[in-house]
Amino acid sequence: MRRTAVRAAAGGEQPQEALPAVAVPESAPAAVPAAAPAPAAYRLQTEFPFELPRGYVDEAGTVHRDGVMRLATARDELVPLRDIRVQENPAYLSVVLLGRVITRLGTLPLVHDGIVENMFASDLAFLQDFYRQVNAEGHTRASVRCPHCSEPFEVELGGSRLGES
Description:
The protein is of the alpha+beta class. The chain is 24% helix and 24% strand.
């Protein structure tokens, strides 16, 4: 009889419970398939780091450029529609929406729509584009070929405003 033992999972992961060695008769059929290794667990990335082109300047004059944006939920896109500022001015939707999904900006203790409202226009445009990329499965570009020279290139498919498809 030969003995087989369970091996530890690849990548340093420890099995939850060690199994004892199992006796296998030498006359065991060779056609018995071995158990396929389980696929690695799919991990959804929900937070994305960014760096603002100019940076948000707080009251003390500190520039905050590094931040983190999380994936938007349906609630994130629906709640701002009830905001009176958005109802009066639909362009304000992106400000309120970004205030909800930016989880960190520099050393600021809290990020909210008032912070986004006071950002430079170039940083706001950057964040709007970044929001589209993050929430459109990582990109808003499509690969195409020139009809004249057949050279490949990418085109931007992003919508006009945040919260709109």
